[in-house]
């Protein structure tokens, strides 16, 4: 769960797809529920709109963190994310990033997420 909120490390394609779809589904679900509550309580319309806006904003932040980690897997800096702000360029980048294989082996952002981590008896984080 902590990995979901960190821009460090790499994210393989499959995990990127799973996380992105999950985030978007959660945002849509919360948006739909909040809209129903907002219509039921017409007196608190501004409060409901602010809540929906907050949920959408947090969903966008989580989705962008996943994009940055996917860029890291292709050995690109997270600053490349700024190109997603360009209206036409973002479509090509989204498609390319979703289907291009990541860097094989270790790169400057960490080990290959496809390769299992080798643990030794002296490793501080040996799984139980």
- The portion of residues forming beta strands comes to under 5%
- The average pLDDT score comes to 82
Low-confidence segments, given as residue ranges, are: none
> Considering DSSP H and I runs of 4 or more, what fraction of the residues is helical?
40-55%
Helix-strand layout with pairing:
Layout: H1 13-40, H2 45-73, H3 89-99
Explain what this protein looks like in three dimensions.
The chain crosses the membrane at residues 16-34, 46-67, 79-100. Keywords: Membrane, Transmembrane, Transmembrane helix. This protein has 128 residues and is mainly α. It has one domain (2-99). It is 53% helix and 0% strand. It is built from three helices and no strands. The protein has helices spanning 13-40, 45-73, 89-99. Helix 1 (13-40) runs antiparallel to helix 2 (45-73). The longest helix is centred in the middle third of the chain and has 29 residues, at 45-73. It is elongated, with a radius of gyration of 19 Å. The two termini are 19 Å apart.
Keywords:
DUF805 domain-containing protein, transmembrane helix, 128 residues, mainly alpha, 3 helices
């Amino acid at each position: 769960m902590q990995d979901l909120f960190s821009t460090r490390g790499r994210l393989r394609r499959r995990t990127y797809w799973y996380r992105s779809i999950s985030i978007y589904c959660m945002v849509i679900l919360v948006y739909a529920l909040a809209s129903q509550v907002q219509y039921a309580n017409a007196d608190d319309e501004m409060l409901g709109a602010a809540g929906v806006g907050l949920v959408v904003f947090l969903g966008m932040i989580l989705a962008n963190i996943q994009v940055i980690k996917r860029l890291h897997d292709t050995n690109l800096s997270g600053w490349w994310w700024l190109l997603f702000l360009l209206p036409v360029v973002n479509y090509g980048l989204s498609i390319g990033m979703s289907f291009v294989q990541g860097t094989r082996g270790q790169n400057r952002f960490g080990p290959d997420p496809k390769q299992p981590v080798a643990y030794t008896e002296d490793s501080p984080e040996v799984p139980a």
